[in-house]
Amino acid sequence: MKYRYYLSFIPPSKVNKVKINSRVFSKTGKRYIVPKEISIKINKAIWELGLQFEKNKKTFKNPIKVNITFILPNRRRRDLDNIMKTLGDCLVYANIINDDSLIFIQNLEKWIIKGEEGVIIEIEELKDIKIDKGKLYQLKKYKDNLNEF
Questions:
Q1: Strands (E), 41-93
Q2: pLDDT band at 16 (very low <50, low <70, confident <90, very high)
Q3: Which of 47, 57, 43, 63 is nearest to 96 (CA)?
Q4: Fewest CB within 10 A of the end CB: N or C in the chain?
């Protein structure tokens, strides 16, 4: 069964952070602050998804397939990969998915519709996860050919 969720806007990119210099370090040794306007948008996305979660009451705990359609209002360049990182975190914080590492298949699509903006998220639980043996064979063949160089 597919579950569908919506956002009324495009969430900000994950790279909208400002590095700060300090003697106190995080586990990775780097400290960042998120600008207030970015933090507000992320919290709004979590809130919108959380409201929809309350209707479905479904938290995905097994591998999933995610289809995401971005409706963009103009042709401005956006890095959908980084926006997807933010969106994955929002899905976790809204309790829709247990962890973003459960996303085994991810399809991103964008449509430019003047004056419209938003995100359509379709999530489907994967029953049987099987790799296409033909793809695996082609990968092995490619690796073998690399060794010949």
A1: 64-72
A2: low
A3: 57
A4: C
Degrees to nearest 5, angle at CA 67 with 65 and 74: 160
What is 2-147's CATH topology?
Answer: 60s Ribosomal Protein L30; Chain: A; (3.30.1330)
Q: Please tell me what DSSP assigns to residue 60.
A: B
Tallying the residues shown for the chain, one arrives at 149
Instruction: Copy the structure tokens of residue 3.
Output: 């579950």
Q: Is the pLDDT of residue 134 over 60?
A: yes
H-helix or E-strand spanning residue 107: strand 103-112
Helix (H, G, I), strand (E, B) or coil at 1: coil
What are the residue boundaries of the structural domains of the chain, listed by start? Answer: 2-147
Query: Which of the two residues, 37 and 72, has the higher pLDDT score?
Result: 72
**Shortest CA distance to 49 belongs to which of 125, 104, 121?**
121
Given a contact cutoff of 8 angstroms between Cβ atoms, the answer to whether 118 and 8 are in contact is yes
